[in-house]
Predict the 3D structure of the following.
Amino acid sequence: MSTSIIPIAFPNKVLLPNGLTILAADIGGTKTDIALFEVRHDRFFILREKRYESKDWQSIVAIIEDFGLDPKPDRISVSVAGPVSDGVAKMTNLDWVVDLREIAGQCRVDQVFLLNDLEANAYGLAALVESDIKVVHAGKENKNGN
C-alpha cells in the first residue's frame, strides 16, 4: 500500500505536533471508512486504512477494536451521516447510536471528536492546496449568476 500525504491546514491555522496520531472514521449507512494517520512536518500520513460494511457491525467501537488500537492513537475523530447533539449521533440510515463518551471510555483515548460528515468535508476542503484542485470543465463566466 502506498503512503498518502494530506496537508494540515485548518481554518484556525493551528499546526499539529509531529508524531501525533489520529484515528479517523467516516460512518455511513452503507460503509465505514477508517484510517490511522500520523502527523509529520505539517502533513498527515496514512499509516493504514480499511473499509467496513456498516450493517455487519454493531457499533463504531466494534469496528475500531477490529481495526486495532496498536499503536493507541492520541486522538479519535468520527464523522457521521446525521445530526450530532451533545456528543451523540443517532444514525439516520443505520441502527446505531454513536456517543463520543462511549468511544473515549471503551478505547481509552481522552481526545475524541464527533462531527457531522458535512462538517468533516468542510474541514477537508480547508486542507486542500492549489495542486489538489483540477478544472474538470472550464465553462463560461456568467456575470448574472452561478
Q: What stands out?
A: Confidence is low (pLDDT under 50) at residues 1-10. The CA atoms of residues 92 and 122 lie 20 Å apart. Helices lie at 60-67, 100-107, 117-126.
